[in-house]
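[Meeting: bench + compute handoff]

Bench side (C.D.) handed over the final construct sequence. Compute side (W.E.) agreed to return the predicted structure before the next meeting so the bench team could plan truncations. Sequence as handed over:
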Amino acid sequence: MPRDPGQTARLIRRLSWDEIDGAWLESLAALARDEDLAGAGLVHRPARPGDPSAELLRNNLHGRARLVARRPLVVAGLGMMTPILAAYGHQCRGRALVPEGAHVPAGTVVAEVTGPTTNLLSLERILLNFLQRLSGVATFTAEHVNALGNTTTKLLDTRKTTPGFRVLEKYAVGQGGGYNHRLGLYDRLMVKDNHLAADGATSAADRLTQLVKRARTERPDLLLEVEVDNLEQIGPVLAAGADIILLDNFSLPHLRQAVAFIRGRAWCEISGGVTLASLPELGQIGPDFISCGALTHSAPWVDLGLDWD
């Protein structure tokens, strides 16, 4: 079927913070706290939980600390301050000083936190863990978006995310300028070679076409994406009604042929082995999308520190 411009909002998105369940964030913050203070995850918990180092302080004064970027980075995850600070006591407060998604130079104060000094000492590492990870994903994504260059091609993430952390990592991808592919198995039909194998089929075009037609009939409410690994599969899959064709690990010459053949007839996505070095050339080929698992599974943490006033 012809490519439908009205499908754009269903194809890609940028997850917003308001879409993330606040109760889930609170439970995630509480779990991180309990790992640190009470041995959550262990069969034998400590007999005396807490932070004995912070408890050595004779005076539990009201303190203030600044969250500082130690290197240039893209900020993501400042919304985690609220559930984390609440998990350590309602006297703790936080204030963001830059917007989410901001590209900031080294030395920028991105937020400040206030509260009892013992609480702030205990929560420091948990707060930094979340913000360093999420800002790391956003910063790494921004580097990939820049490498893609001046093109209409959109950079997508994948489901190769940290278990239990997907929503936050995909949110961070959006803050870095990327886009979200499907959030889970539930929100798109995606027919891949493993589905063929599990269904007793081979990679032959006719068997692939049958599965595509079945998918279109049984779930017409969902977009249908089909992974192909050779040029011969593309024509039958288009005829069967795929919305998106995923070109998996094609050579550059075959990518050029495939993208030209698909253009205007369906949405086209390139995937497999995408790197910073390969993105400029892939973008020049002109697919609608390029998906890159490295945005989440290989993003390094960035250096943020908590400096006390």
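W.E. noted at the follow-up: The chain has a mean pLDDT of 92. C.D. will use this when planning the next construct.
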